[in-house]
Amino acid sequence: MEGKARSGERKAYHATKIRKAAQLLFYKRHSIPGARGWELKKKIGSDYLKVINLLNEYLAKIGLTIKTVFEEETNPPENPSNEQYDKARFYITLKDEVNVEDAKMMGWRIDDLAALCASIAFIISRGGKAPRKELEDLLRAKIPEWRVETSINKFVRMGYLIEDEDEMIYIGWRTRAEVDQKKLLDLLLEAEGK
Hints:
The protein is an alpha+beta fold. The protein has two domains: 2-96, no CATH class; 101-193, Arc Repressor Mutant, subunit A. The protein has helices at 2-26, 37-44, 48-60, 82-87, 100-105, 110-125, 132-140, 145-158, 173-178, 181-193, and strands at residues 35-36, 64-69, 89-94, 129-131, 161-163, 168-171. The strands form two sheets. Strands 1-3-2 form a three-stranded antiparallel sheet. The chain has a three-stranded antiparallel sheet with strand order 4-6-5. It starts with a helix and ends with a helix.
């Protein structure tokens, strides 16, 4: 009987922590969705990585997944340290690929998606960074001129792109979390060949 009681206590303990983790990741408190590792550690405890893994198992059943984005690093570390996890952003996203119809239901316009794809591909082709002016020139050829500055600012605000004080644009943390960059380039090259 004692073993069953302990098992029930453990389940209740983990259920409470999983619920708290879900709340932190689902509900936006800032302009950027998700939560940093240190925030999760503070609210859930030092075993937050275990709790995140348990939550991820539940989310997988409904087509969602938790992505871990190491913002300061362009390539995720193979064996991240606890310190790297504390600085990382944990973010819930769709497990499967998003098609155009799904994107429309999420509030994206097709021309915004095209501008974002073109921006990401352009930055990748420039070695991971590009001057804002060059990106603006590229987008002027693709979308109406009055939308160019607004679109870039929107992508920066949403975390898909990063802009530094020298007006250089880089791939943002959200692009690394949501976009399969290799597949994007393959699709663009395939379309170019047709």
